[in-house]
Amino acid sequence: MQTRNPRRSWVQPLCWTAVLLDGFDLVVLGVVLPVLLADGVWGLTAGTGAAVSTIGLVGMMIGGLTIGTVTDVIGRRKTLILSVTIFSVCTLLCAFAPSALIFGALRFLAGLGLGGCLPTAISMVSEASAERGRSSSAATLVMTGYHAGAVLTSLLGLLLIPQLGWRAMFVAGALPALVLVPLMIRHLPESAAFERARAEVAAGSSTAAAGTVVRTLFQGRLLRATIAFWVSTFLGLVLVYGLNTWLPQIMRQAGYPLGDALGLLLTLNVGAVVGLLIAGRVADRVGVRKSVIGWFLGAAVFLALFSLRLPTLGLYVVVFLAGCFVFSAQVLIYAYTQHVYPPHARATGLGWTTGMGRLGGITGPLLGGWLVAAGIAYPWGFYLFAVIGLLAAVAVAVVAGRGAGRVPTERSEPARPEAERQGARREPEAAPGAQAGAGPEAVQA
After folding, report:
1. CB 3.0 to 4.6 Å from 401: which of 60, 127, 289, 348, for a disulfide?
2. Taking Cα atoms as reference points, which of 361, 365, 360, 392 lies closest to residue 377?
3. What are 410-430's pLDDT values in tens digits?
4. Would you tell me how many other CB atoms lie within 10 Å of the CB of residue 357?
5. Cβ-contact 350, 214 below 8 angstroms
6. Is there a contact between 43 and 100 (Cβ–Cβ < 8 Å)?
7. Looking at residue 411, what is its pLDDT?
8. What DSSP line would sit under 196-225, residue for residue?
9. What is the pLDDT of residue 434?
10. pLDDT digit string (tens) for 120-151?
11. DSSP states of 114-142
C-alpha cells in the first residue's frame, strides 16, 4: 500500500497560482495597449498592435503543441517550472523592450511558456485529485486562477499605469515568479501517473519517445476523440474570445449605453467564475461527457436569448448565465481529455487540444469584428454564436461515452469497463494492439 505523498497538498495551490500568473500575462497586453497607442510608443498603430497580440497567440499555440509533448517525456513538474520561468522572464524583459519588434518577439516567447503552463497544470491537479473522484472539479477550480489573474491585471492597471507607467505592469507580472518558482522547486511533487508511466518505460513495456507519444493521439479509438476535442475546443474558444472582445460593442450597436455594455462584460466574466465552480462538481457527479454536452447546449440557449429586447435585469441575468455556461463548457473539454487519453499521453493530448483551439481564439475576434463591421452583429451574431455552441455539443457527442474510464489515481490502477475486465479474466493475453491504441481509460468510440 502506497503512503500518501505529504507534498501533494501543494499541487492545487501552486498550480492555481501558476495559472493566475498565466491569466495576468495573457491579459496584460490588452491593459497596456491603449496606453501604447495613445502615447505613440515606438510609432505603434492599431495594425501593429493587433500583430503583436496575434503573434503572442501563435506562440501560445506552438507552446501548447510542443510543451505538452515535452511534459509527457520529462515530467509534469519540470515542465510546469520551465513554463512559468519562460513566460515570467520574457514578461520582465518586455518592460525594457527598445522597439516594437523586440516587444513582439518577447511576447511570442512568453506565449511559448503560457501555452505549456495551462495543460500541464490541469494534468497535475486532475491526476492528484482523481482518487477522491474530483478530477473535473479540480480542473475547473484551477481555471478560476485565470480569471483571478485577469481581474488582478485590470486592478493593477488602474493603480500602476497612472503613477509608474505601462512598463511597471510587466515588472509586476514577473516579480511573483521569484517566490513561486522556488516554492515549486521545493514543494511541487511529480505526478504519480507520470511516475507509473516512466516505470513502464524502464521495464520496457512502454515508450516515452516524443514521436510515439504524439502518434498515440491518432491511433485506434483515440483518433476520433482527438479530432472531436480539436473541433469542440476551436468552437469553444471562438465563443470565449469573440464575446470577450466584442460584446460591449455589439450591445452598444443594439442601443445600450456604454456603461451598460461594459457592465455586461463584467457580468459575463463573473458568471464564468461561478460557472467554473459549479460545472466541475456537476461533472464529478454525473460524468464529464454528459456535463460538457449539457453545458454547450445551455450556452447555445442563453446566447440565442441575447437577441431579445429584455428588461435590464433580465438581460443581466441572461448574460450571467451565458457566462456560467460558455466559459465552463470550454474548460470541461480540458477535463474530459484527462478521462480519455492514457497517462503517458495525457498532457500531450491536452496540449494539442489547447494548441489547436488557439486558432479559435484568433478566429473569434475576427468573426466578431466582421459581424460588427457588417452591421449584423445584433441580433444575427448571437444566433451564429448559438449555432457554434450547438456544433460544439455535437462534436463532443462524437466521443461516445459507453464505458469511459476514470482518471488513474495515485493509489489505484486505472478503472476499466466491466466488459473489458471480464474479457481479461477469460483471456490472459493482452489484446492485439493494446499498447498502440487507446488505454483502458479511453472512451469507447
Report:
1. 289
2. 365
3. 443 433 433 333 344 444 443
4. 26
5. no
6. yes
7. 42
8. HHHHHHHTTS----HHHHHHHTTSTTHHHH
9. 37
10. 898 888 878 776 667 678 888 888 888 788 77
11. HHHHHHHHHHHHHHHHGGGT-HHHHHHHH
Residue type, 309: R
Give the total residue count for the chain: 445
For residues 272 and 328, the answer to whether their CB atoms sit within 8 Å is: yes
pTM: predicted TM-score of the whole model, two decimal places: 0.72
User: Is residue 154 within a helix (H) or strand (E), and if so which, with residue range?
Assistant: helix 135-164
Q: Which of 106-131 are b and which e, b meaning 16 or more Cβ less than 10 Å from the residue's Cβ?
A: bbbbbbbbbbbbbbbbbbbbbbbbbb
Q: Are 234 and 358 in contact (CB under 8 A)?
A: no
Query: Which segments of 303-389 are extended strands (E)?
Result: none
Q: Which amino acid is at 90?
A: C
Distance CA 219, CA 300 (A): 32
Q: How far apart (Å, rounded) are the C-alpha atoms in residues 151 and 174?
A: 16
Return phi, psi of residue 401, to 5°: -105, 20
Report the alpha-carbon distance of residue 270 to residue 320 in Å, rounded.
Answer: 7
Question: Apex CA 299: angle with CA 121 and CA 279, to 5°?
Answer: 40
Q: Is the peptide bond before 365 cis (omega within 30 degrees of 0)?
A: no
Distance CA 405, CA 443 (A): 7
Spell out the residues 6+ positions from residue 205 whose beta carbon is closer than 8 angstroms to its own: 435
Cβ atoms of 63 and 114 within 8 Å: the answer is: yes
Low-confidence residues of the chain, pLDDT below 50?
1-2, 402-445
| Residue (of 54, 47, 63) closest to 29 by Cα position | 54
Residue environment code for 303-325, b if the CB has 16+ CB neighbours within 10 A, otherwise e: bbbbbeeeeeeebbbbbbbbbbb
58: enclosing H helix or E strand: helix 46-74
